[in-house]
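Bumping with the actual sequence this time:
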Amino acid sequence: MAISNQNAQKKNDFLPELLQVVRLNMQTYTILLALIGIWAIFFFTTGGTYLAPQNISNLFRQMSVTAFLASGMVLVIVIGGIDLSVGKLAGFVSVVAAYFQATIWFKYLPNQPLLAGALSVLVGLLVGTLFGAIQGYIIAFRGVPSFIVTLGGQWLLTGLILLVTGGKTIPANQPWFSDIAQGYVPIIWGWIFGVVAIGFLFWNMFRSRQSKRKHGFELQNIYIDLLATGFAAVVILIYVYNVNSYKGIQNPVLLLAVTAMTMIYLSNNTRFGRYAYAIGGNKEAARLSGISISGMTFKIFILMGFLSGVGGVVLASYVGYGTTAAGVGYELDAIASCILGGTSTLGGVGTIQGAMIGALIIASLSTGLQMMNVAPAWQYVLKAIVLILAILVDVYFKKKG
């Protein structure tokens, strides 16, 4: 009888608590509504073409590089840092991968595209991770501000790109390597991966509740968590159905999904994630509680370098070439994605999920404006307006809170 009364009480508290959650997360829901509004506008202005399966497929593929960078940038901003070099680092990795594909492996591993492609990926990831480690060391252990270090890193990488390419375009469209970003997952496997992703969402929800209970945090009504997770599950099913109507889930989107799930778990359910948010919330309190500020900063910039390496490999595969302009503007799109997704520029607040939504908004704007033949100059103007509005919304809700 007591258990029945408790369940009845939880159901009675559901609506008031749901309204409270909506008020507390109004910024997140505003961004979601903005995304829906953007899609609705472009749907009608393009005669429905914008939401056709082929365009949705291309849209998610185009957002993948920015999303890889944004997933790492969240934690960088959360601890109060910034990384202005990620775009050029991804670009440098792309030209290095292209160089090895077209020059080194073509000479020493002829007629072995699988091995050559795998080695190019490995080299790209090592280059990204190493550069992230070098920058992280200077920032964490030498006390140089991240803004200065990564700005210098951006200039350095611009020069290195020109040196590697020699001012020319390097082909990177060899078999297997091209499939990394241009291939598709078989339709049946797309459904399987969709079900696995949904299973992860529910597992992560229950694991997060268990972790909060273990550490003495107050839990919100389980029906609210189930409602939010169920909504995400429906979105995944709609996406899989849509892209399977064309050719299937794109390889880079599948890779992005695995990366996002890993980063979500890392930030929500591990000591690493808790320490990162603790540093961003109050650095001095985190230091006094025994957290190594320099050690965490170093690790986060290594992670950022690794994810830049992933983005660079995908970029080389998607474009099919290593060019002198590789990576231009990606750092700004990554930072904008985080801010649009609710990551606070003051540190301590931000989610991987929000950054993914922010990256999708950036890609949605670019794709829609291109389909409407809007001049590039006005595309930049409209993106700037959207970003500034997002920051104003962030400031408004923080003052209200």
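The tokens above came from a reply further down the thread. The mean pLDDT is 88.
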